[in-house]
Every structure is written in structure tokens, then in C-alpha cells.
Amino acid sequence: MLSKSKLAMVLFIVSEANFFALLLMAYAYYHALDPGGANGAGALDVVTTGLYSVCLFSSSATLWAADRRLRRQEYRGGIRWLLATIALGAIFLYGQGREYARLLRSGVTVSRNLFGTTFFTLTGFHGLHVFLGLCALATLAGLALRSGIRERQTQAVEAVGLYWHFVDAVWVVIFGVVYLGSVL
Question: Which of 168, 134, 141 is nearest to 16 (CA)?
């Protein structure tokens, strides 16, 4: 049976999945209207973004390791894995910021055309979700540092874990559709 916190997170994730699905459909629709490349998709740096994406994807593994350690009340190891997860997520956000700066310098902006609007909206909302996940992970690390994770708080760890894995899964789809789709 799902705890209240896990059920709440699952319901939140379902609503967010619908939100991201709509953003992806809008991106795909507007990208199909201008497949010739004038939309800015050709300006995307697939390789560099792919490397930063590996950091985000790896963070799911480090969070899994943190969860295992915290469940066994191995707080030092759990905190180290949580900090590794936070670092990997922060590296991903740094990479997204670099990509945005490079695109803006090359003239790809939110108001330039439909590609810019949908690209920055889709990836920007994902970046916001990563940032919020990092805040939640930092809160968990603070709890673990202060007093360890109590039995009741393990539900929070599970809920944050569900959210973080969802954020990773969403990026798999976004990266596939937006970045890999731009080179096909």
C-alpha cells in the first residue's frame, strides 16, 4: 500500500507528466511546421548536451545508492550519495545554462520563432523541475546530517526519489525528441 506522501507524489507526477506531454506535443507540432531548419534546431549542441545529460541520468543511480544507505541507517554513506546526486544535477543545470547562453548568442531566442518559444518553454520547465528536485534533495541531506532519517522520514526519501526519477525520465524523452530529433 502506498503511503500518503508517495500517493501524493504519484498524483503530482501524473499531472506533471500530462503537462510535459502537452509541451512535447506543442514542440513536435511547431517543429513539423518548419522542418527546413530555419527553426533553430540546427543550432543545438547534441554532443555537449548529451554529456551533461549523462550526469543527470547517472544521478538516478546515485540517488538509488543514497536511498539504500539511508534505509540501512548508514547516514554517512547516504549523505555522500545524496551530495553526489545533487552535484550531478547541478552539473546538468550548469550545462543547460551554457546551452542557453550559446543559443542566445547565436540569435535563438524565445521570441525569435516557434522553435525558440517551444524549446525554451519545454527545457526551461524541465530545468525548473531539476532545480526544485535539487532543493528537495538538499533538504533530505540536511535532515540526514542533522538527525539521521527517521522511519517517518523514509517516506519523504521515497517521494523525493520518485520525483527525481521522473525528472530523469522526462529528460530522456526531451533529449530524444528535441536533441536527437534535430539531427535525424
Answer: 168
- For domain 4-14+45-183, the CATH architecture is Up-down Bundle (1.20)
Reference 95, options 14, 183, 171; nearest CA is: 171
pLDDT tens for 134-184 read 999 999 888 888 876 766 677 888 899 999 999 999 999 999 999 998 776
Per-residue pLDDT tens digits for 5-39: 889 999 999 999 999 999 999 988 888 877 655 56
Q: Work out the percent of the chain whose per-residue pLDDT is above 70.
A: 93
CB 88 within 8 A of CB 44: no
Tell me how far apart the alpha carbons of residues 63 and 61 are, in angstroms, rounded to a whole number.
5
Prediction pTM value: 0.92
Reduce the DSSP state of residue 73 to 3 states and report it: coil
Burial group, residue 6, by CB count within 10 angstroms (0-12, 13-18, 19+): middle
Domain range annotation of the chain: 4-14+45-183
φ, ψ of residue 72 in degrees (nearest 5): -90, 10
